[in-house]
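quick q for whoever's on today - can somebody do inverse folding on this one?? i tried earlier but teh output was garbage lol. tokens:
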């Protein structure tokens, strides 16, 4: 595996750490390959209930793609990197286990895509977010697919056209992140969230995540019918029976992911 990305499993959580602090945790092609492989590994591991993504150090969560690599080669070669990145975004979106982003510093360009691919985003309240591609004559294309699904259109187009910095409090208010927290409380907030997610039913969350993603572009009537069928699948699981029984018996459920 690439040294650009570290992988560790602890207490039901798979931690993926972007390990390029000297390069402000810029995205490398080796890292993209490792990311995909590690996500597959976490998906297969029954002991992993949740995945947490962060960056090494405090200089940045992720500063986007390495432009030196982007500019190299002919057109087809230059597109190889963006296509690999697009594949990673799709793989993250398809992960059936919860994804949590621990944003420990500025998040820019392609890093925004990695961040928005996560279900829950916890960030320092003294950091910022930015899509600066417009300043070098390009545009945050694939990132736009995620921006438009998480942020209002006017806010999204303002962000990509101006390339301005979005401070964490504004990012929270516009729906770009889940919560902005004091730097000294970030680790505690992340740990609390990971433990909470790890305590839930793995199969219940898997069915729910898949259903919510699938229905997001459906018409209302179709979405309601689809979610009704998904609820039927969730109710039929052993975890659902255990959860409802535990509720009646006033005890904590023992979920087994079945």
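ok took a stab at it. sequence:
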């Amino acid at each position: 595996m690439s040294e650009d990305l570290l992988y560790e499993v602890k207490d039901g959580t798979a931690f993926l750490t972007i390990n390029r602090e000297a390069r402000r945790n810029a995205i490398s092609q080796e890292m993209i390959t490792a990311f995909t492989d590690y996500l597959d590994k976490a998906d297969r591991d029954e002991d992993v209930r949740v995945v947490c993504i962060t960056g090494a150090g405090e200089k940045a969560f992720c500063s986007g793609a390495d432009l030196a690599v982007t500019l190299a080669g002919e057109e087809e070669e230059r597109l190889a990197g963006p296509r690999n990145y697009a594949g990673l975004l799709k793989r993250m979106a398809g992960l059936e286990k919860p994804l949590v982003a621990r944003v420990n510093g500025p998040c820019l360009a392609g890093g925004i895509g990695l961040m928005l691919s996560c279900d829950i985003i916890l960030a320092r309240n003294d950091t910022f977010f930015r899509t600066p591609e417009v300043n070098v004559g390009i545009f945050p294309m694939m990132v736009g697919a995620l921006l438009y699904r998480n942020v209002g259109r006017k806010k999204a187009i303002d962000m990509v056209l101006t390339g301005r910095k979005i401070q964490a409090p504004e990012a929270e208010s516009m729906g770009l992140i889940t919560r902005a927290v004091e730097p000294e409380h970030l680790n505690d907030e992340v740990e609390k969230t990971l433990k909470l997610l790890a305590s839930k039913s793995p199969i219940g969350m898997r069915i729910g995540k898949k259903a919510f993603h699938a229905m997001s572009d459906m018409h209302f009537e179709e979405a309601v019918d689809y979610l009704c069928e998904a609820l039927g699948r969730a109710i039929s699981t052993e975890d659902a029976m255990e959860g409802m029984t535990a509720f009646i018996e006033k005890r904590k459920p023992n979920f087994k992911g079945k």
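fwiw The beta strands are 5-10, 13-18, 50-55, 99-103, 107-108, 120-124, 128-130, 166-167, 179-181. also The domain at 202-248 is CATH 1.10.12 (Lyase 2-enoyl-coa Hydratase; Chain  A, domain 2). so keep that in mind when u check it
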